[in-house]
């Protein structure tokens, strides 16, 4: 037999047994011992307090236990996020216009106010102007401190 005919025969066997059921159901297979994880109970040592200093230490130990979850492992506390960048006056005005125009229209519609044509135009123009101002100020170039090479940083 050639290697090609062996592969063809194996392929035919795979195709022929496609709809056959498995000989052993996965529920019947035993669980491998290497996959078993031993269950160890959490042990806590409690020492009797002899004097006030020991009471203080015991109270501090109780506070430390509050940081532990039910498995006895510590909780993750993320670092404090960096402060938001300071915005200049034109950027602040653009954000106010972007949200202020639609907010005025929404409040005026909900309160059933009579809207003049100039107020309606001003609200829509403020929204569009604020959006355009933010997009224009966004910039699309690399940061100024990137240097001459825009390659990967290792």
Automatic annotation (TrEMBL):
> What residues form the membrane-spanning segments?
93-111, 117-136
Task: Name the lineage.
Answer: Bacteria, Bacillati, Actinomycetota, Actinomycetes, Streptosporangiales
The segments labelled Disordered in the record are: 18-84
- Name the record gives this protein: Uncharacterized protein
Recorded source organism is Nonomuraea guangzhouensis
Extent of Acidic residues compositional bias? 51-72
Keyword annotations for this protein? Membrane, Transmembrane, Transmembrane helix
